[in-house]
Design goal:
By secondary structure, this protein is of the alpha/beta class. It has 2 domains: 34 residues, no CATH class; 212 residues, Rossmann fold (3-Layer(aba) Sandwich). The protein is 44% helix and 20% strand. The protein is built from 9 helices and 10 strands. The longest helix is centred in the C-terminal third of the chain and has 37 residues. It is globular, with a radius of gyration of 22 Å. The termini are far apart. 27% of the residues are buried.
Amino acid sequence: MRRLEWTVLRRLDGLLQGDYRTLFRGFGLDLADLREYHAQDDVRHIDWNVTARMQVPHVREFQEDRQVDAWFLLDLSGSVDFGSTGVRKRLLSAEFTGTVARLLTRYGNRVGAMIHAGAGADGGSMSVLPARSGRRHVLHLIDRLMSATPPPPAAGMRTDLAQLIRQAQQGIRRRSVVFLVSDFISEDAWADALDLLSRRHEVVAVRLFDPLEQALPDLGLIVMQDAETGEQLYVDTHDKAFRRRFAQVAAAREAALRGTLSQLGIDCLELATGEAIDAALLRFIDARKRRSQLAAGSVANRTARRAQRVRSHA
């Protein structure tokens, strides 16, 4: 934690000025404004009376409260222990969680965590850390994260992200920012559960990955082992056709993941082993800011064109 505070957090302090709400928007009940509906708006905020009068969907905007509850849904299954650059995805998950949790608690917000260490014979190892504030709580969270161990590999064992997401749906009562931190190497049936979770909370997907998972180098004949099932396979990485098929399958999987998250309207922060946390966070914040500005500009342009048509008819 001290290392993160002296490196990542000190750098972010000077670069996040004015961008706190870009990353953590907060929630409130005081009506601030009305504007036209655009893609990815929460349909629950549509003002049906104004929509009926204007013949165009309008949504309510609320005065934001800086107090935010944040929850980290942490996938610590066997595949997260992988890393080819000297940094495992597990350590990357801990650094991201520690950084963001400390950023939030320094502003008086509360953070909690649900830690899923993978599916075992008993249905899975899940632990819950209630939402609290303070530096000591962040240290406790990091300690729990680093000490969580997945069950030993066994035939038929697969990560089930849907189980973690359903647990969050049932356990998080207050509207919160939810960070789903995972490498998304899981059974496929998690999209519906994530859709339900995102209807109540603001969800950010944090994808952990390693460059070696996207393209294999020429290492000759090697043994590869599934981190969760323990299955081993001899592969010849000297075979160019095999490396090409591996890259194609990895690219198709990435495209499917991004397509699913985009369809659900969920932002994705991608963290690669070997990349600085602060650089990834700032890239993510800039992308959200640009998208927000584009959406606001689009709404303003449509309003101006409509006003021009009204004036011309008058």
